[in-house]
Amino acid sequence: MSYFNTTKKGEIQELREGIGSTNLRTKKDSMKRVIGAMMAGTDVSSLLASVLVNMQTTDLELKKLIYLYLVNYSKSEPELAVHAVNSFLKDANDTNPLVRALALRTMASIRIEQIAEYMCEPLHRCLNDKDPYVQKTAVLCVAKMYDINPQLVEDEKFLDTLHTLLSNGNPLVVTNSVATLAEIQTAHPETTIFQITPDILQKMSAALSQASEWGQITILDALAAWYTPQSPKEAETLAERVSIHLSHNNSSVVLSSTKVIIKLSEYITDLNLVDKLMKKLTQPLVSLLSSFPEMRYIALRNLNLIVQRLPSLLVSEISVFFCKYNDPIYVKMEKLEIIMLLVNEQNVPQVLNELKEYATEVDIDFVRKAVSAIGRCAILLPGAAGLCVDTLVHLIETSQVNFVIQEAIIVIKDVFRRYPNKYESIIGKLFSKIEELDEPEARASMIWILGEYADRIEGADNILETYFLENFADEPHIVQMAILTASVKIFLAIPSSQPLVQSVLKIATKKTDNPDLRDRGFIYWRLLSVNKDMAKAILNTPKPPISTHKDLVPKDVLAELIPYLGTLSSVVHKVPDSAAPTGQAPKQTSIPSGDFAFQQEELVPASQTQSYPPPTSHNFDAQANDEELIDFGAFGLSAYNTPAPASSGIDLDFLTGMMGGTPAAPPKIDYNFDALPQLALHEGVCVFGQFGQLNRKTTFFLRFKNNSATPITRTDFRFNTNSFALKPQSADLGPFPIQPGQQRDVAISCDFDQSQLKVTGPDVQVGIQCDLGMIMFAARAKILSLTQYNLAADQSKPKASSVKNRNATHSIQNASNFNEFVQRVSSYGFVETNRMVKDGLTAVQLFNEIPALNALLVVELILKDNQAQCVSRTEPEYLAQMLNEELTHILV
Amino acid sequence: MHPLDSWHKEYSYGFREMIDSIFILSGQGDIIIDRPFAQTSPRSLAEECYKLIKENKESNLLKPVLSSEQEPAYMFHYEKHNLIYIAITRTEGPALLFSKFLEHLDLVLCDFFGEEGLGEKVRSQFVYLYMIMDELIDGGFPNITEPNMIKELLNPPGPSGHSAGTVISKTELPPTLTSSLYWRKGTVLYVNNEIFIDINETMNAIFGRDGVIITSFINGEVLCCSKLSGVPTILLNYDNVMVMEDVSVHPCVKYLEWVNKKHVMFVPPDGNFTLMKYRAGTASAAVPPPISVRPSFTFSKGSARFELAIAARNTGSKAVEQCFIDFSMPSTSRQINATATQGAFTYDSNKKTARWTVGTLPMQGEVVLTGNIDFEDRDAYCEERPIATISFRVPMYAVSGLKIRSLTLSGPTYKMFKGMRCLTIGGNYEVRM
């Protein structure tokens, strides 16, 4: 039987009779046909009166059908629905909870104000119904009502009832209350309806373990959005609690839990615990990939963000991201992106094999992306660059596929820029394919290589003339620009090619309508005619290093996206824009997708866009008509910066010479940083450091050496809780960026903070969060760097004698300069509290204290029979051994 | 301006876990139901979505989240059982939840109507569909989602398609709704009390051209069919429990017992359910593959030779059955001839796919397929290589080594019949030739 075939006009009458029938079965069947017709788009509104007559039926199925009909038509003709109000009110009082709930739900979905007013009374009753089924339905009606008439909801104090229901015994009632509060809060960000107080947190986390999977998501998402831990302890407890849900069958629960844990981890000060929590995330995140393809895509989009934020999490699992041949193309693309985020020196051979495999696939976009990824590996990982270049050359030599070759040449140009003068032996192999290049970008790349290595390529001028000059006028803009620059470079390398450059300059300045090309031509022309050496200096200045952003999503956007993990924003990688009343200008948050962002970003290096120096700082001698040139330069710069065409990497030669622009160096610190021990090596970042004193203040001396390929744009420097209550004053190693190859020496002065105190041992665990993830290491703290320098001798004496602990002793080999030992200890601020000379025995007692730790330090130096001994006694006791060890070093 | 641009401005902080509308379409694109929650969505959205699905049916290119051209809305779609499920949302919300919910919706419908001919049943009984949807999702939020509970709220139709009666007589709700064991029906009574446990493992692997594994992992599922009276508590112990990595469990499992003691204690739902899911044999503890492969592939001008030898290994002396190998051949292949030491080889020149049906693998020694590919262009070298996907089953064997040690009942006093099985099947068992 089908209910969909009742579209003929004459049947309306038949249906009306059917509904009016006394036979329940006929009534129901007719009603089903009415709904069927409604679904099919037929107008059956004329039946309203006949339908309303039946509202009082006791048959639940018929009732549901009638309600369905009403909901549908009340949207288009709400005033008709008002006729049914009395029936609604009656049903909302029915003995059957299903009927009560149905009536209320239906009323709430009729969104007109009149109904809302009628609803108040039954809503109050149903919110406090004895049956949770009715309650959970009623709770959701509050949100709908708030939409229609917020004032009414406030007046009737429904929100207070919702807050009370958060401690209801039924998990569904609780989660629906959370959902409703969250919903209202979101729709009305100006209000403070939903505030997660410790009390509410308690209720939510109690409901978390009992709720259904969907309810768990609601609670977790609400926590991620609105909850801010009040203390590290609170964050720890909740994170532990949430981590149980990481092993849920429902991947959406897993992702929501992950989101909450990542957020909480920022509030946890115990770095070991953070590390442990993060490790717990790995396996569940990998398991997201076993879901069906539709979800896999969404999961991958989210993993992409997580990996950018926490690369170390999944690096050992890189092989799960290898593509299967029958993965949908959008899944393959996502996997490739993630592989590129995870690649490192260890796994690069494995990754290259995969990429080579992908380069033989059918889909053009995917193949191109794979080829370009090989080049990206080379740029990211200096250690593997040779291997990557070999792979690219192999592809160029063996591939029969034209676009593979072209893409390979485009990335090789970037590799050349990253490693100047290193792989030029392969140039010959590239030129064997010169005739096959027909894409503008590939041609421009080839021309750039030609110009850059003109002095090492035999007959570079002839090659340029033969292959590229013939159709100069028809070439795309980027190729023309490349030819112009290359011809000048070739001329500077091979002076005999003057006719070539002259003809190019002539075409560029006289026969073209393109102002960019013409102006560039004029500049070169003038430059060459005024001073060839200067031209050389400008064109051959070292180019700014090609930056290899591992991050596809800009840092600030990434930070904003983390709370949105698992949501739509995370899938489209856009932050939902703030509609906050502050009237901020919309953020530019769209992210280049589909292609690796580095290709675009490298083209305008940071030094150009961010710190364009004033004209006076040009680093070449200004001569007679340089004024004009400089203006030109400035003009040209802005012109090239705006659209940042894909080719401008090639244009850089022109500009880089004119730019100064390294970030200002930090103030010089009087300390021998070269002597610092190495503490950590992480993704190419080398950290040296130790504790010491600077201006009598405890200081952590740090050398941060960036040997990776990524510029460091942010750092966060933290100590774990430690035995000395130390806390770094500043968390910043700026100014940024710290470019690849640069190092930064900083003296981080430390404060005492009692909340940091936890007796763990002599080591202070240090964490540096930077672009490359978390660098963790331990540094030995020094008691002698914590001491006081202005102690009064008279007050010290009683304190010193109060220290009764067992002690640590060591003997000193060479006792001849005993007085110097006393001097050395005193130089750390110790005051002499006692001295005893008797029968060839000399004993000196020295004292110092560390108020922040309530620590008292007593050192006794004893000389007897030319044998010297050093005794340390401390309060608290655990410091004695450490103090003694440190003294061993200074008393030799 | 794309409609979604304004969307991103409009919805600011936080998000609403809301589905605006759900459409269920027949495979032919007719709208069976249109269920608005927060805001009505025009049917044209569903039509737009269907159009996109239809256009991309062959190409496998359509992303699971689509943005509409007509208005600022996102469309999630999921296709199964000749039905197309579409969720529309205009608000920021948990994408994974929406996607998962559509999957769950299909699951519930299967449970309610029976999987066979679901498309047709749903169509003819669409009134039930409305009632199910009413319970399943309220105001755009997933609500009562346990299949058992829905069945109790709405008596499913009998086999004839007619309702067995309506729930109107009830004045009380099923007690399970408020019970802390919400997944279990209130009163269950069987004459024969039985429980069946299946360990099903899917072996996934990618082999390189040299026949060496590049990546592999096992997806395991412990399925349970419980037909037990009363409220039984089951205790399940495994041998080799350490092979299970990343375990996810059904809500009925006492999680802390599992974490601390590595045994599974649970009060089962009635009927079929997935007790646990796990992965095994990943990078850290790789499992030797049950079938070893030895591919070879050589090009010459205008043609290529290929050879694939496979052999059963490490299957605990259990036979590898129903083995067949699907090849995805280079798109420029013209003609392919091949001979096998066992089984038959067929080639479909339209789809450029081939299948080598082997059957049961011999316990000793390998079976070999050798063949020749002629390319359309007789002078060219071909770059593309074939990919082989091996399908197989090894009954009574779990490749990870997982075994059930014991299964005991506590609570009720009746005797319980226990059935246990294992099965390993080839999932994505892919050989790059």
TrEMBL record, chain A:
InterPro entries per record: AP_beta (IPR026739), AP_complex_bsu_1_2_4 (IPR016342), ARM-like (IPR011989), ARM-type_fold (IPR016024), Clathrin/coatomer_adapt-like_N (IPR002553), Clathrin_app_Ig-like_sf (IPR013041), Clathrin_b-adaptin_app_Ig-like (IPR013037)
Instruction: Kindly give the Pfam families that the UniProt entry links to this protein.
Output: Adaptin_N
Q: Where is the Clathrin/coatomer adaptor adaptin-like N-terminal domain?
A: 9-530
Q: What is its main location?
A: membrane
Record's Gene3D superfamilies?
2.60.40.1150, Leucine-rich Repeat Variant (1.25.10.10)
Localization, UniProt: Endomembrane system
Ordered alphabetically, the record's keywords are: Membrane, Protein transport, Transport
Family according to the record: Belongs to the adaptor complexes large subunit family.
Name of the molecule in the record? AP complex subunit beta
Naturally occurring in which organism (per UniProt): Blattamonas nauphoetae
Automatic annotation (TrEMBL), chain B:
Q: Where is the MHD domain?
A: 192-432
Q: Which CDD domains match?
A: AP-3_Mu3_Cterm (cd09252)
Q: Which UniProt keywords apply?
A: Membrane, Protein transport, Transport
One Pfam family this sequence matches: Adap_comp_sub
Identify the main location. Answer: membrane
- Domain of life of the organism encoding this protein: Eukaryota
The keyword Transport is annotated on this UniProt entry: yes
Q: Where in the cell is it found?
A: Endomembrane system
Member of which family? Belongs to the adaptor complexes medium subunit family.
In Swiss-Prot or TrEMBL terms, this protein is called AP-1 complex subunit mu
